[in-house]
Amino acid sequence: MSDANGTNGANGSNGVNPEKDLSASNLPGQRGQGGEEIRVQRGMFGANNGGDTSGYGGLVRSVRLPGPASRPYGGWFDEVADELEGALEEQGLLPGNAIEKTVVDRDEITFHIEREHLLRVARTLRDDPALRFELCTGVSGVHYPSDKGRELHAVYHLRSITHNRLIRLEVSAPDSDPHVPSLVSVYPTNDWHERETYDFFGIVFDGHPALTRIMMPDDWQGHPQRKDYPLGGIPVEYKGAQIPAPDQRRSYS
Residue 240, Cα to own-chain centre: how many angstroms? Predict the structure, then answer.
């Protein structure tokens, strides 16, 4: 909704951080140590058996996740971080026990939350008058097979309609214990998003009212969006020739 000056609310447009350039000393947070390396990719497709026909077989690339940012984060990012930490302290919870790290990357802020405190943090972000993140637009699953001990990630996108701001929450869980608290009690619209993430990634949302598959058949084995899921498929006939199923073709893994 535009105000009389044609802007989208008091904090700028679309929840971005317009205040960070107001002062030369108000710099955005920087990645710590260039990010966190989770694996080294060799070749365009990570081929390791001579099957890479792309011409990039000699490519070596470090795959990194953004590291924690340092203060100041810039603009309203610091305000949100301060308000969240203060609200958690008022509830008797040390912020450092709930917030694993804060990442500022590409003009976006993400709070990495310990999964046992996810419900309390989400409720605080929704209800605190200085925060008011009333809307969760869904949860996305991510699978990092090389991120040992936290292979599965759930990413929540929160919007404050009151303050016109956007943030992310991210939690992780190991393959061996893929459980994350459900946020349906805080954000009811997450109902179907959590079902889809469970279906495709196998993240179990504890406390969900009816967690079930919604895309794959009920008796389907495995979770198709995981990086280690086999391609599978069926042979295809094309102009008299038969093309093998993807998992029977030349290997790129």
Answer: 45
List Cα–Cα distances, 49 to 52, 129, 248, 253, in angstroms: 8, 57, 15, 8
CA distance 112 to 143: 16
CA distance 164 to 1: 10
Q: Which residues pair with 63 in a beta bridge?
A: 39
Residues 66 and 105: beta-carbon distance below 8 Å: yes
pLDDT of amino acid 170: 97
For residue 173, the cross-strand partners are: 152
The one-letter amino acid code at 116 reads E
9-to-76, 81, 84, 155 alpha-carbon distances in Å: 14, 20, 21, 26
State the pLDDT confidence band at 46, using cuts at 50, 70 and 90.
low
- The pLDDT of residue 2 is 43
Query: How far lies 196's CA from each of 209, 213, 217, 225, in Å?
Result: 14, 7, 12, 11
Q: Is 231 in contact with 207 (CB distance < 8 Å)?
A: no
What is the dihedral angle through the alpha carbons of 133, 137, 141, 147, rounded to the nearest 10 degrees? -30
DSSP conformational letter for 14: T
Cα end-to-end distance, the chain, whole Å? 49
Count the neighbouring beta carbons within 10 Å of the beta carbon of residue 133.
26
What single letter denotes the amino acid at residue 227? K
- For position 6, what pLDDT does the model report? 43
Rounded-to-integer distance, Cα 108 and Cα 166, Å: 8
C-alpha 27 chain-centroid distance = 24
